[in-house]
Amino acid sequence: MLEKRASEDTKIIPYDRRRLGTSEPVFEAPVGLEPPIATAQPSLGAYWHILLRRRWTILSIVAILTTLVAIASFKMKPIYRSTASVEVDSETGIVKVMKMVAVQDCGLVVDLKTAESQCYGALIMGISYSLYEEKVMDATTGRMLNADMQFYRLAGLSDIPELVVHMMTGKGYDERGVIGLGEPPVISPGAAISNAVANAIGVRVPFLPLTPDRVLTAMEKKEGA
Predict the structure, then answer these.
(1) Identified catalytic residue from 28, 162, 175, 183
(2) Domain assignment of residue 43, given as a range
């Protein structure tokens, strides 16, 4: 009955199933009637079209997975070590960094001057966040209370001690190829300075920055223990 009415009363037109990802006419339906696309199975071409439409998402996922695999392998890991020599005033709790030494293995160094500068900057940042930088927040409003250069302390020129940077290059290092040298050098200075302070006063200060009040509190707890 449907075939008779369609052939006599309506014109048969090709139905373009674009929602399934193909532009080929895969079904012919009478005008005004809904084609049964709900029960249709998408073809291989339909899946391919969907993948192409989401190609940037797929490329991003592939890039992320590739990067994670590369980082997980030893060949792509930058190796960074730093040591610190400090003086601690037992009366005021003030910590003074006297010298810092950084050793960086980042594979093949393309530009030695720039690589060393990156490490010097990381040491300076490490001293700053280890001893001075602290964000004070309002517990009620959630706003930062010292969001200006007057109350947010940074390390100054007089706070920076002798800095020594040694880049591991040559045979056994260059073969690893070029490895990123971005954030890694800035991570270890905090631990190095904190360990040096703990070695100097005999007790560990559990928070950064190592402000005078925290140093004195740690020393008082040690004496009262």
Answers:
(1) 183
(2) 2-53
Within this chain, do residues 31 and 141 fall inside the same structural domain, yes or no? no
pLDDT tens-digit series, residues 66-80: 766 666 555 567 788
Q: Looking at the structure, tell me whether residues 117 and 47 fall in a common domain.
A: no
Residue 65 domain flag: no
Whether 64 maps to a domain, the answer reads no
Query: pTM for this structure?
Result: 0.65
Quick check: 20 and 42 in contact, CB under 8 A?
Answer: yes
Name the band, by pLDDT with cuts 50, 70 and 90, for residue 111: very high
Tell me whether residue 91 is one of the annotated catalytic residues: no
37-63: pLDDT as tens digits:
444 555 666 655 665 666 666 667 777
| DSSP-assigned beta bridge partners for residue 99 | 85, 162
Name every residue whose Cβ is closer than 8 Å to that of residue 79 and which is 6 or more positions away in sequence: 104, 105, 106, 168
